[in-house]
Amino acid sequence: xxxxxxxxxxxPSHISTTPLSMSTPPFTSNDKRKPSSETQTTDFPHPYKxxxxxxxxxxxxxxxxxxHSSSNYASEFNKNNLILSQKLQNFSRxxxxxxxxxxxxxxxxxxxxxxxxxxxxxxxxxxxxxxYLNQEVKxxxxxxxxxxxxxxxxxxxxxxxxxxSLCQAARVSKTWAKLANEDLLWHRMCVxxxxxxxxxxxxxxxxLNRNNRxxxxxANFASSDSTENNLSCSPNxxxxxxxxxxxxxxxxxSPRVFTTEYSCNPDDANCLTLNHTDSSNYQPEQDDNTxxxxxxxxxxxxxxxxxxxxxxxERQIVAKNWKLLRYNTTVMNxxxxxxxxxxxxxxxxxxxxxxxxxxxFNSSSGTFLYSITHSTHPVTxxxxxxxxxxxxxxxxxxxxxxxxxxxxxxxITPFQNQGVTALKSQDKKLATGCINGxxxxxxxxxxxxxxxxxxxxxxxxxxxxxxxxxxSCSDDSTIRRWxxxxxxxxxxxxxxxxxxxxxxxxxxxxxxTDSKPSNNNHKxxxxxxxxxxxxxDIDSGKCLSVLCYxxxxxxxxxxxxxxxxxxxxxxxxxxxxxxxxxxxxxLHTSNTVIxxxxxxxxxxxxxxxSGRIIKYSFNSQNDF
Length: 624
What we know:
single chain, alpha+beta, four-stranded antiparallel β-sheet, 20% helix, elongated
């Protein structure tokens, strides 16, 4: 017997008091650790742990054991030794020595001998012991392939996961989290989803503007009469001059004072300017606590970049709010006059009333800022750029305002006895539609104006596509496509049986940087009082689809890459999928006719006949 040959006097009492964690794990051939001097010179080594142990190799196949070659094995070994030493104290000294001898014999045996020992132990085990082995072996066989593999392999594996799976992978361990939160992975995810629909998962994320980029300023707003001939809006604002009855804008005007804030709101896309650009060039927003002053020329210092994972998460929340129709509403009241048109940007919401007045609101809070008077005739159209807005009235006048101060820059009347019914600006061009069906183009860069003739009735809406293409809809039930360089109409879209109130281009049409449309299948939406929405191929002029909701007359349209909004005669707003053309939601928003609507990635605003401006916000910062 083994116990007969053991002289217990050789084993001091420290066997029961020294924890097993004091011992070291076996050394492999590639292990750079050296045994400490204490271990080499100790007088009383553990009977169940030799100082030198053969490397744990499988000699038959000459492959290294994954478990013992893992970088985490040393810590696991010490932890398990501590647990085993505590359990060993519950046995007598004789049993302790017996167990230690078995462990020592097993650790010093070759790989083949170990397998044979295990087979014999399994053969001698009862059901309870086999059940325990089954539970323990499953735990020990769990392999962390991410920790053992190189970071490049782990990165490649995680690149095949979707966003939800990546978030779940980040919760496995710190090693997994470091790989799953890699910025390059989430950048790919953003490029795959932002401003487009992913065909693998069916989700698309909004591009989003920069929100709260400019704060409205407080100023003493002068009346229209006192500023009629005043050309100066602020020291940094550009001047407006009249040259041969043409409106000529020099440079671009900037608001008087504004601050730059980069918040956690996903409304921040540095690539988004007046024209949409490819979302792959998008850079994440930056946290900035400094203020930018147009007066003092203070530079903005961006100290910290927002991670792409955070960019994706914020836009995912906005997209989910749209899908589940979770929103907050803000009601803005101007005067009691009917709202004929309204337009908005990141900072301001501007509405034009039938009474001839223009009301300006804060876009984020909905606070009323000021009101100005254009004329005594109804204001039918608005056009905005970075710092000025242009208004047109039925008396034929066009006025340029600085909305930072509410000051009139210049007023002209290019049309005699011809009311202005539509305005649209693009870079240094301004298109105006008149009540007689003519379209006038003001080219500020060249300082000239020319007229496009073709429509036979009032122009209702104008849309630029690039710098050289213009779309117009009219009361004559037609839509025309104009080539500005050639000053002629190239396409006429026929199909509606009644007045066409609004048109809208699929926003993906603006992703090309070229002035000419590419070969992509661009879509044009048109809404008519005949109760239908028609989807057109802008190149061929063919009607691709006809949408209808109970035959209610349609007053205006707005669309982006993912959805199409239509307002109806009964005060309802229909939300359609811009790709599949399916009706997603119907909102009961007003009891009167909605004359104008504007759409952004995280909200939409509309004005109705009661004089109200209502904003529906799907922003991620809102609490629902």
